[in-house]
# Entry
Amino acid sequence: MRALLWFLTVTILTLESVELPAQQPPFMGVPFTQSMAPLSRQQSAVPVPNPQEPGFRLLPHDSGPTQGLWIQPECWYFHTELLSLRRDRPRTDHFSADQYAAPDNVVLGTENLSFNFEPGTQLTLGRSFLGGSASVEFSYFTLLSDWSSAASYTDENPYGGLESNLTATFFSDAGASSAAFDTFRGAGRQTIDYSSALDNWELNFQKHFRPRLRVSASSLVGLRFIKLDEGFAFVSYNINADEVGEYLIATENNLLGFQMGGNLAYEISSRAAVGIQAKGALFVNFSSQNSQLINSDTASGYDLPINTGDITNGDLASVVEVGFFGRFFVTRRIELRIGYDVMLLSGMTLAPEQFDHTIGLTLARKIDSSGRLLAHGVSAGGIVRW
# Structure
């Protein structure tokens, strides 16, 4: 990943250092140009508008006539995308064991979780200036549906009916031996439920460089805020005692930091281009976790909080994003885009990773901010300029 960011940086600096011939006008805007093949007006596949039309300029090229797409050097633009993203599982951990299960007695853990692709949307409003060579934009992304997954294990008797041999894996501490924890021992069924909600805000400044040899580039610096909220529930059903035990964990990650990035695009025709983009960010993660252990006696109708805990933390986190994209100009103001993106968040406080296997008199005695989250998926959208 560092090699990719280094390659983008060197390429951008190289493009910036090359000067265009003096007789050509200064760069005015869009990141790619039309074909280098010298075509006449009669041969050109794209009509050439009147160069005197106010508010529009043609992008100069290294050689050949300045034909192709018209660009709007200083304008407002709105970019909207729909995404379908899937995340990976948290690191392996086990929550439920059956004393008669083979080979290691473990019957329920994070390896039983599986996430689907969930929809999201990204909205960007920007303004270009300095003749189109720079722009400022604000962007917001959110998941329209949380990442969620659930799993369960029922201790079934092979001859029919239910057994009561399931035990939570946090009974390695003497403080968890009281009768209040009976719902988590000798259970007939245990379940886990995990969900994540992701939101992202960005304020970026972009510099667009002069295209050379069908290749264009831009660099980016900005501020970024990411919010990741998660919930994890471990539920144990003690059939014999007619009780339900719940171990509930909620975490918040509030990441604030600085990011850098850039993109490279290669023009494959007068209207279309393909490219790669990358961003890297360093954050301070203001994270917290809240844990509750509850014993619910369903027969008597009461809830007994066994213990609760709350803890906050501030630590470093990072995000690396890489994406591949293709784009097509329908008109001089309308652009269509498709892409595939990968995002890695490190230094995260993930809810299942706060599961305390040595529960005693208190919960949330520590906070684990070493988690990572990998998400990937496809995107499709468009840009409108005015």
Remarks:
- Residues 15-71, 172-176 have pLDDT under 50 and may be disordered.
